[in-house]
Amino acid sequence: MTPAPARLLLRDLAQLATPAGTGAPLRGSALGDVEVLEDAYVLCAGDAIEAVGRMRDLPALDGIVRELDCRGLCAIPGLVDCHTHAAFGGDRVDEFSLRAGGASYEELHAAGGGILSTVRATRSAGEAGLLAAVELHRSWMLREGTTTFEAKSGYGLDRDTELASLRAIREAGGIPTWLGAHAVPPEFTAADAYLDFALAEVLPEAARLAEAADVFLERGAFDAAQARRYLEACRDAGLALRLHGDQFTESGAIPLAVELAARSVDHLEATGDDGIRMLAASDVVGVLLPASALFLDRPLPPARALVDAGAAVALATDFNPGSAFCESLPLVCSLAATQLHLSPAEALAACTVNAAHVVGRGRGVEGEGRGEGTHGLVLERLVDPRPRRLHLEPELVHALRVLVQLGQVGGLALGR
Predict the structure, then answer these.
(1) Between helices 159-171 and 115-143, what is the axis angle to 10°?
(2) Domain CATH code at residue 35
(3) Is residue 282 one of the residues assigned to a domain?
(4) Does residue 105 carry a pLDDT above 80?
(5) Which distant-in-sequence residues (6+ apart) come within 8 Å of 96 by Cβ?
(6) Bridge partners for 69 per DSSP
(7) Of 367 and 202, which is predicted with more confidence?
(8) Same domain, 33 and 88
(9) Model confidence band, residue 378 (pLDDT cutoffs 50, 70, 90)
(10) pLDDT above 60: residue 48
């Protein structure tokens, strides 16, 4: 007989705040609809959330139940980072002064810096070094409230390092995406020749390790025809599809994403009115990466226009060594509220329900299916009792947090 899973009761929560909609992805007015329970509890069983409610409705519990006193704390769903580049070696510190002196992202890339600089360091790191790096980066994310993360390869661009990156991501608990078409490595003189190699030599094994494939469709990387070829091959191998698109130029990423029924198109800093309308009429999620735009001094993505048009949007960090060295989703939510003009409630849904949808994960505490696909909880000091503030605004970015993930409790030594 299989023993019952360990149970954990989070009791006497001042508030539990969670997106109220029952579908995914949320869009339109549903994106900002939040359910708030006062004086609440959450009952976890193993790696699932068994029940949520008000303390006055808590039934008698049988068996052994660990209890966590949550007076003065507010719970939100664990944050889901659906776009990171956490598998890399080395750093890009030397590029900061060059960029401060006026060098653009594209100029650094053309000179052998940028992505290609990290490719050299990542190839030298070895599989053990990559695993150590991803585990370190995961610990940083967890400290900031991220309980589920996606990470991409794309800094190896050869067979052994790409596959080692995907294995490291999986072993560290991440959701692996094969970004085999991130850049053309230096040993190839043409993008088409590199794709010949990647699709023949890397894709068969990458499809067994990764859950999705991604491509950088942009001037100086891969054009729409090359992206189509790569994505169609990856789709035929059983991978879900994602795109980096409209970061610097509109080069056909949104039409291709819609045509191929991709899960997401990410960046969108250069997206215009036609792209907004096309995305809003589709099931493709626009993943917004404001930390990257801020870091590169680029225009921010048109988040408000996308949401108002009815598009589904998610938020992510784009954590990477060069253009977004930021693992903090609370900071991204703050940027979403102050720079992208999303409400805190919309930001919460965008980095929980909608981000989980992008990476193919079910819903946790939010809405229907509370017992499936749990991404954990984030507990924060309730500084302001007004529920719509949602403790995601800038002055609360560094609030105390206690993480509850997969039935395990961390950081319980925090004082009140």
Answers:
(1) 0
(2) 2.30.40.10
(3) yes
(4) no
(5) none
(6) 11
(7) 202
(8) no
(9) confident
(10) yes
Report d(CA 287, CA 71) in Å as an integer: 35
Residues 20, 112 within the same domain? no
Choosing from 315, 331, 358, the residue where a domain stops is 358
Give the angle subtended at the CA of 256 by the CAs of 327 and 343, to the nearest 5°: 40
CA geometry: angle 339, 343, 348, nearest 5 deg: 105
Beta-strand runs (E) in 218-304: 240-245, 264-267, 285-288
Burial of 341: CB neighbours in 10 Å, binned 0-12, 13-18, 19+ = middle
Q: Tell me the residue type at 218.
A: E
407: left (phi over 0), alpha (psi -120 to 50) or beta: left
Residue type, 97: S
One domain, residues 72 and 85: no
Using an 8 Å Cβ cutoff, are 342 and 34 in contact? no
Residues 221 and 323 reside in one and the same domain: yes
Distance, in Å, from the CA atom of 262 to the CA atom of 214, rounded to the nearest integer, reads: 10
Q: How many structural domains are present in the chain? A: 2
Mind listing the pLDDT tens digit for each residue in 148-160? 999 999 999 999 9
Q: Bridge partners of 8?
A: 44, 66
Residues 200 and 214 in one domain: yes
- 116 band by pLDDT with thresholds 50, 70 and 90: confident
In order of 155, 197, 288, 315, 317, the CA distances from 194 in angstroms are 14, 5, 29, 31, 28
- List for the chain the helix, strand, coil content (%; round to 5): 35, 25, 40
Name the band, by pLDDT with cuts 50, 70 and 90, for residue 55.
Answer: very high
The first and second tokens of residue 291, run together, are 């930390």
Terminus-to-terminus CA distance in the chain, angstroms?
41
In a domain, 415, yes or no: no
Q: What is the pLDDT of residues 357-366, one digit of tens each?
A: 999 996 543 3
Structural domain of 46: 7-78+365-410
Amino acid identity, residue 333? C
Q: What angle do CA 358, 44, 35 make, to 5 degrees?
A: 60
One-letter identity of residue 369: G
Choosing from 338, 358, 378, the residue where a domain stops is 358
Clarify whether residues 287 and 331 are in a common domain.
Answer: yes
Read off the pLDDT of residues 303-358 as tens digits, 9 standing for 90 and up: 999 999 999 999 999 999 988 999 999 999 999 999 999 999 999 999 999 999 99
